[in-house]
Specification:
Nuclear Transport Factor 2, Chain: A, alpha+beta, 7 helices, globular, 198 residues
Length: 198
C-alpha cells in the first residue's frame, strides 16, 4: 500500500516545492519596488507610448508590493474609525494615487543617482526588515530599511525607515496636525488639490 502511494506523494511534492521556492521573499519584493521606481520617467509630452506604458507598469508595482490599506489606517489614526467604509475606501484609493503620481516621480529622481547595497534581511515571525545602504552624491551614505509583513501569503511593505526614522510616523504626525487644524474634509481637499497639480 505504501509503495502504491509513493508516486502520488512524490508528484505532490514536486508540485508544491517549486511554488514555495518561487514565492517572493522580502528582499526580492523591495528590489522589485525600487527597480520599478528607478525605471520611471518623468511625465512629459515627449514621452513615447512605450515609455508611458512602461511608467504605468512601474506604478502598478506599488499596488502589488505596498500595504496601502494598512498605511491608510495608520496614517489616519483615530480618524479611521470615525469615517464610513466608503470613505475609508476612497481615502485608500486617494493615497495610492498620490503615491503613484507624486511619490514615484520624486523617488525616481532621488533613486536614479543612488548606489544601493542590500545589506541584510531580518525575519521576525510574520514580519521582516530589509536593510539597505545607499550612497548619494550630495547626501553621502544613508541607511534605508524597509519593514514588511505577510498578508494572504504575500510580503507587503508597510514602512520605510530613513536612518532609523519612520516615514509613516512622520506622515501620520503631519496628517494628524492637519486634521486638528482643518478637519478631515480639509485633509481630503488638500490631497485632491495636490493630485490635481501633478
Amino acid at each position: 500500500m505504501k509503495k502504491k502511494f509513493l508516486p502520488y506523494t512524490l508528484t505532490l511534492l514536486t508540485l508544491i516545492f517549486p511554488l514555495i521556492s518561487w514565492a517572493d521573499e522580502p528582499t526580492s519584493i523591495v528590489q522589485k519596488l525600487v527597480e520599478s521606481v528607478r525605471t520611471f520617467k518623468p511625465e512629459t509630452p515627449s514621452l513615447s507610448p512605450q515609455e508611458r506604458a512602461a511608467n504605468s507598469k512601474a506604478q502598478k508595482v506599488s499596488e502589488e508590493t505596498v500595504a496601502v490599506q494598512d498605511l491608510a489606517k495608520r496614517i489616519l489614526g483615530p480618524q479611521w474609525g470615525k469615517i464610513s467604509a466608503t470613505e475609508q475606501k476612497d481615502f485608500t484609493h486617494l493615497l495610492m494615487q498620490l503615491l503613484q503620481k507624486i511619490a514615484y516621480p520624486k523617488s525616481a529622481e532621488f533613486f536614479g543617482v543612488l548606489k544601493i547595497d542590500y545589506t541584510g534581511e531580518k525575519m521576525n515571525g510574520t514580519g521582516a526588515t530589509v536593510e539597505t545602504k545607499v550612497s548619494h552624491p550630495q547626501e553621502g551614505q544613508v541607511s534605508i530599511d524597509y519593514q514588511l509583513h505577510q498578508a494572504n501569503g504575500k510580503w507587503l511593505i508597510d514602512d520605510v525607515l530613513l536612518d532609523g526614522v519612520s516615514l509613516i510616523t512622520n506622515v501620520q504626525s503631519q496628517v494628524q496636525q492637519l486634521i486638528a487644524k482643518e478637519s478631515y474634509q480639509g485633509l481630503i481637499k488638500r490631497m485632491r488639490e495636490k493630485l490635481a497639480e501633478s
